[in-house]
C-alpha cells in the first residue's frame, strides 16, 4: 500500500520514510508513526496501513536508516546509538512539516516503545503537531520539559511493563497535570508491547481498546 520516500528535515538534510495514503484523497489529515526498536519492519508498516484505512495519510520516518532486526540485543544497540533529540527535532518534526506542506491540514504523532518515548519528546519539540499518542514509552524527566507541551496528548501504558516502569508514568502524569497539559492516560493490566501482534506479550483485548481510543482521539483532533 505504501512506498519509501525522502523528505527534508528542518536542518535541510534528507531523511527516508515509509509513506502510505488513502487512494483518491489529496487532503487527508496526517499521522506520523514512530517505530519500535526493531526498525521499519512489516509490522510497523501494517500499523501505518491501518491508519490509512481510517482515512489518514501516514509517514513512518526511518530512524535507523534502513537497518531492521529481529534480534533484541541488536535492537537495543540500534536504539542506544540513536540520537533521540535529533530524531525528535529533525526526523519527526520534519515529517510533520512535510505532510503539512503537502496539503495535510492537521498532523498527529504516535509511536510504540522507543517510539512512544520519542512521541512525548516530539510533543515538546514539534509546535506544528496537532495531537500525540504514546504507546508504552516515555522519556526520562531530564530529557525534555513536558510542561511546555501544547498539543493534546494520550498515553497507553502497561502496568506490568518491564521496560517502562508504571511509576515513571505516574511521575510523568503528575508533571503534566501540574503544568495544565491537555492529556489522557490509560493503564492496562498487560505487559510491554501488548499491542504488537507479533510479540509474545500481545493482548488482543487491550490492543483493541487502545486502538479504538487512539482512532477516536485522532478523529477528534485531526478531522474536526
Please describe the topology of this protein.
Layout: E1 3-8, E2 14-20, E3 30-34, H1 42-53, E4 57-61, H2 72-81, H3 84-101, E5 107-112, H4 114-125, E6 132-135, E7 153-158, H5 166-179, E8 183-188, H6 204-222
Parallel strand pairs: 3-4, 3-5, 5-6, 6-7, 7-8
Antiparallel strand pairs: 1-2, 2-4
Describe the structure.
This protein has 224 residues and is of the alpha/beta class. The protein has one domain (3-222): Rossmann fold (3-Layer(aba) Sandwich). The chain is built from 6 helices and 8 strands, in the order E-E-E-H-E-H-H-E-H-E-E-H-E-H. It has helices at residues 42-53, 72-81, 84-101, 114-125, 166-179, 204-222; strands at residues 3-8, 14-20, 30-34, 57-61, 107-112, 132-135, 153-158, 183-188. An 8-stranded mixed sheet has the order 1-2-4-3-5-6-7-8, sandwiched between helices. Helix 3 (84-101) packs across helix 4. The longest helix has 19 residues, at 204-222. The radius of gyration is 16 Å and the shape is globular.
Largest sheet: number of strands, sense, barrel closure: 8 strands, mixed
β-strand number? 8
* Protein structure class: alpha/beta
**Range of helix content:** 25-40%
User: Which stretches are low in confidence, meaning pLDDT under 50 for 5 or more residues running?
Assistant: none
User: CATH superfamily, please?
Assistant: Alpha/Beta hydrolase fold, catalytic domain
Q: The CATH topology is what? A: Rossmann fold
The coarse overall form would be globular
**Radius of gyration over alpha carbons?**
16 Å
How far from one another are the termini?
26 Å
- CATH architecture identity: 3-Layer(aba) Sandwich
Name of the CATH class: Alpha Beta
How large a portion of the residues is in β-strands, by DSSP E? 15-25%
The overall average pLDDT, rounded, is 96
* Structural domain count: 1
Order of helices and strands: EEEHEHHEHEEHEH
Give the neighbour order of strands across the main sheet: 1-2-4-3-5-6-7-8
